[in-house]
Design goal:
Chain lengths: ~375, ~325, ~290
């Protein structure tokens, strides 16, 4: 019987190593748009730094449009104009190789894809070519990395599917012949067949019904433990994070506001936003009325000054309106960016003035 | 397999429906006329001489039988339909007594040869170039090609044919502008004959291809620009699938599928273009036959060519329709 | 509306070019009211005079001033094309909206008929029509016939828009709030359909003018009315190509080509403007 929280070292096949597989430093990615003479800059990812260790699932939480998807797209190196990386770096250490996404040559990056870095997408997206059978998808994505002969490759794929409790006959199907849940499972199998060191999972169970959700999550956990890969798991559903993540990062309006071991974050959240997210989870026997946060998520093209959460924060102080708090370590492996959490949190000294005036000037 | 046969059966039903409606339309058009074709024929035949009243009467009766104008409208309709079924269009009046079907038989291969080649060429080339233009959006050459395609596409076939006629017929006479082959060259599989056929078909083919390519180019370019933003293409790029794989198998192949439907839909228009072009270059196909028939008031020939055109185009569309599921596995076969 | 047109003009090259071309063409057609000659008269000026100061586009072998005949030709041709387009829009809209909204059996029946009109080659039918009508052929009749043949392609476009609109939220809300089908279709859906209808109108004008020119050149229409097609017809009749009277067919060909390209560019730029995906890419974004 596997434990529900993802936190126990001894039960893992691969020894956890504290070398980071992924190191993100000071990453900023903005959308720059021009339309009929009007320029707009949306600061989707604003100065984010964190690491993900070997054999660890890092959960990324936050409401819609907080920048989670943009962040992981930036990490995967899958951005295109008008989204651009303004500053910062994304560095992978796969053991045998190290790649810095925004410094390496495009061929190098194409090389590491799928073999070292793969991607699982939202359940609702149609990521399989509708005109090609599933086995061709495996051929297209994985064959060149596995490098064996065709019959051996075939066998490897079938073994992999069987281990993940999928029928090998699914290879002959066309995507539209499979149900949504089935398609998602096939995609997960596809993303893991090359045993990558790092997997990005972007809301893989959203848009699936709850029963299918459970089996898909179990599958993800199983395959992650078997391969020993690290994972960034993005979802707004805190219950899923409680189930899956070893460490948890909370994002708000393009910034990381809290990060720590899942158990710690759930037991003692230090940021008011985190506290709110966790309290919104229903608990058996809890009859209290849930309060919604007042206000709405900020417009990222014209964000609030200082701490971006201050318009909706019940603990907002004067300094919160003026200064942006730095992400500070306040407990072992537990970082928070909130002035109210502790006086140790200092302002980051960053100008939050809109770059809009500058943009308008360049017409 | 059984589902496929059901699908074919449905398409066949559509084919018969189209032919039926088309043929009926022609019937009604011909019977709309305030002119009585029999009287017209009679008057033109008796215009130049003295004919005895009995001879005129016999002529009139014979013509009436020929035209099938005996009996009331419904009877005429059924006579008409039954004749079409066996492809009996009666004798041509301008080439009396050669049956219309013989004339059509002679002209049909020319039209089909021209049409088939031109359609295939413009579809293939237009789609390939359009696909590349949609994928490599910043290529200068492809942008220029796009502008040229946009320039040619809206111009009707007649004008292009006409311009080409002027250019190559009078200003720069290096290509033959009339006929299907040289006047004195006998038919047969000789080198001389084949090159003559080819050189005579260059200008008509060019007219059709120039107009056609633009349409396919623009359509394909739009399709590809949309497809490159599709989830499965982006995912393949995320998965490090090489561009040499993505372009043909994820982009072009997927964009070609709606273009196949487009091909079926535009066959009627391309056919129109072909017969106009034939007229301009006196190419011995159905087009010239039709127009000539109108000029010489050859009623049965006009009717025959119209009917055959409808049948031929519908049959081609039917063929494309039944081949379509081979390209798109998502098609509902029920 | 005007603001959209102004924005399009400024930022979309095709739209700007198309508008300029069409403006020129309409200008030429409008000049016909100033013509000193009656378009139906022949031999009012010395024939076969090449372009010169007195006759800027020369004169024809029938003794008409090419320039003034051209203005009438453009006017008649444009009017004809416009009439056919408007008439066939009515049928397209009716069939498309009914078929798209009602769905089911009505849709299947209508679409089967619709596809017939797409597949059947229309030109032989028109030729046949002329053949049986001969001297009774008038422009109004021809316009009517063409309109009743040329609606099929666009009806399908409108139908697919209607089908997607039917699934949208606001339709269901309207149904629940008790609006009748007619009200829903006219008040809620029509505004979405009209932009597409506008661009298909432009294409349809191209199509009908093209067909008119072709039919006239072959001599299948009323040849006394000056239109672009009949001009070229008469030029051919008098062997203008061989006798070197190039101005007689060159100028109509040129002006009608300009018309076609102009209308086409307008239609294409409108289509691109309406399509939300391309709008996004024009803003510099992607749709992913």
């Amino acid at each position: 019987m596997k434990p529900e929280t993802g936190g126990n070292d001894q039960l893992r096949g691969v020894k956890r190593n504290s070398d980071p597989v992924l190191r993100v430093t000071g990453l900023r990615a903005y959308f720059n748009m021009r339309y009929f003479g009007i320029a707009r800059e949306v600061r989707a990812v604003d100065d984010i730094s964190f690491i993900v260790r070997r054999n660890e699932i890092y959960g990324l939480a936050g409401e819609s449009s907080c920048g989670k998807t943009t962040l992981i797209k930036t990490i995967a190196g899958a951005i295109r104009p008008p989204l651009e990386v303004i500053s910062g770096s994304v560095e992978f250490d796969f053991g045998k190789r190290r790649v810095s996404i925004y410094e390496a040559a495009p061929e190098e990056i194409e090389d590491i894809r799928w073999e070292h870095l793969s991607y699982i997408v939202q359940g609702s997206m149609n990521v399989l070519n509708p005109l090609r059978r599933v086995r061709n998808a495996f051929l297209d994505f994985a064959f060149r990395h596995i490098g064996k002969s065709m019959p051996e490759f075939q066998r490897i794929v079938e073994d992999h599917l069987k281990r993940l409790h999928l029928e090998p006959s699914v290879l002959e199907a066309y995507p539209h012949e499979l149900s949504g849940g089935m398609r998602q499972r096939v995609t997960i199998a596809l993303a893991t067949v090359c045993r990558p060191e790092f997997i990005i999972a972007d809301e893989p169970t959203t848009a699936l019904d709850v029963v299918v959700q459970k089996s898909v999550l179990a599958m993800i956990r199983e395959v992650q433990q078997e391969i020993g890969s690290s994972m960034i798991f993005v979802t707004h559903d805190m219950a899923v994070h409680a189930n899956m993540a070893d460490r948890l990062g909370i994002m708000y309006a393009g910034r990381l506001v809290e990060e720590g071991r899942t158990a710690d974050v759930f037991a003692s959240p230090m940021h008011p936003y985190t506290a709110h997210l966790i309290s919104s989870l229903p608990r058996i026997g809890d009859l209290s009325i849930k309060q919604a946060l007042e206000g709405a998520p900020p417009n990222l093209s014209d964000p609030p000054s200082g701490c971006r959460f201050h318009p909706r924060c019940p603990l907002a102080m004067d300094i919160c309106r003026r200064e942006n708090p730095t992400l500070t370590t306040l407990a072992p492996e537990h970082r928070v960016a909130c002035f109210a959490a502790s006086p140790k949190v200092k302002p980051s000294g960053e100008t939050t003035g809109s770059r809009l005036e500058h943009a308008e000037a360049m017409q | 397999m059984r589902r496929y046969l059901l699908y074919v059966a449905k398409r066949l039903a559509q084919f018969f429906l189209v032919v039926f409606i088309g043929i009926s339309l022609t019937f009604f058009i011909t019977h709309l006329t305030p002119i009585d074709p029999v009287e017209q024929m009679v008057s033109s035949m008796t215009a130049f001489g003295n004919t005895s009243p009995e001879a005129v009467k016999m002529m009139r009766e014979a013509l009436q039988e020929l035209y099938g104008v005996q009996g009331n409208l419904l009877e005429q309709y059924f006579t008409y339909l039954s004749r079409i079924l066996v492809l009996d269009f009666g004798p041509s009046l301008s080439a009396f007594p050669t049956p219309v079907s013989v004339l059509i038989e002679r002209a049909l291969p020319w039209t089909i040869g021209l049409l088939f080649t031109c359609t295939m060429l413009s579809w293939l080339i237009g789609n390939m170039l359009g696909g590349l233009a949609g994928y490599f959006r910043n290529s200068r050459i492809l942008k220029v090609l796009g502008a040229v395609a946009m320039g040619f596409h809206p111009i009707p076939y007649y004008i292009i044919a006409f311009v080409l006629l002027i250019l190559f017929g009078y200003l720069w006479p290096i290509l033959p502008i009339t006929g299907g082959s040289g006047q004195n060259i006998p038919q047969g599989f000789t080198f001389e004959y084949i090159t003559s056929v080819l050189s005579h078909s260059i200008l008509p083919a060019l007219s059709i291809i120039l107009v056609g390519i633009g349409g396919w180019f623009l359509g394909m370019r739009a399709l590809v620009s949309n497809i490159v933003t599709e989830d499965y293409v982006l995912y393949a790029e995320l998965g490090g699938v090489k561009r040499s794989r993505i372009l043909p198998f994820y982009v072009i192949r997927n964009a070609l599928v709606p273009q196949i439907t487009g091909l079926a839909m535009s066959l009627g228009a391309i056919f129109n273009g072909a017969i106009i072009v034939e007229q301009v270059f006196s190419y011995p196909g159905l087009g010239r036959l039709l127009i000539g028939a109108v000029y010489s008031a050859d009623y049965s020939l006009v009717l025959g060519v119209t009917a055959i055109s409808i049948i031929a185009v519908s049959a081609s569309v039917f063929l494309i329709d039944i081949l379509y599921p081979l390209f798109d596995p998502r098609v509902q076969l029920t | 509306m005007l603001k959209i047109a102004r924005d399009l003009f400024r930022y979309n090259r095709e739209f700007a070019l198309g508008s300029v071309l069409i403006a020129c063409v309409i200008g030429i057609a409008a000049l016909s009211v100033f013509s000193p000659y009656n378009p139906l008269d022949t031999y009012v000026v010395p024939p076969d005079v090449p372009p010169s100061w007195a006759y800027p586009l020369g004169t024809t072998s029938r003794g008409q001033d090419t320039f003034w005949i051209l203005t009438f030709a453009m006017r008649n041709t444009l009017l004809f094309g416009f009439t056919v387009a408007i008439l066939s829009r009515l049928i397209s809209l009716l069939v498309g909206m009914v078929s798209g909204y009602l769905g089911g059996l009505a849709d299947r029946v209508l679409m089967s008929i619709n596809d017939t009109f797409i597949v059947v080659p229309l030109f032989p039918l028109l030729v046949l029509f002329y053949f049986v009508m001969r001297d009774y052929m008038s422009w109004a009749l021809l316009a009517l016939v063409m309109a009743s043949l040329g609606w099929a392609y666009d009806a399908r476009l409108i139908r697919s828009i209607m089908m997607s609109l039917k699934e949208r939220e606001f339709t269901r809300t309207s149904v629940f709030s008790g609006m009748t089908t007619r009200q829903i279709v006219l008040r809620e859906h029509l505004p979405y359909v009209l932009p597409i209808v506008f661009s298909t109108t432009l294409n349809n004008i191209n199509w009908s003018i093209g067909l008119e020119v072709t039919l006239s050149v072959l001599g299948f229409t009323n040849l006394d009315t000056p239109t672009i097609g009949t001009m070229i017809f008469w030029a051919n009749q008098h062997s203008a190509m061989v006798s070197g009277v190039w101005w007689w067919f060159t100028f109509p060909t040129l002006s009608i080509t300009v018309t076609f390209i102009g209308l086409f560019m307008l239609a294409v730029s409108m289509n691109e403007y309406i399509d939300p995906r391309s709008r996004l890419s024009r803003m510099g974004g992607t749709t992913s």
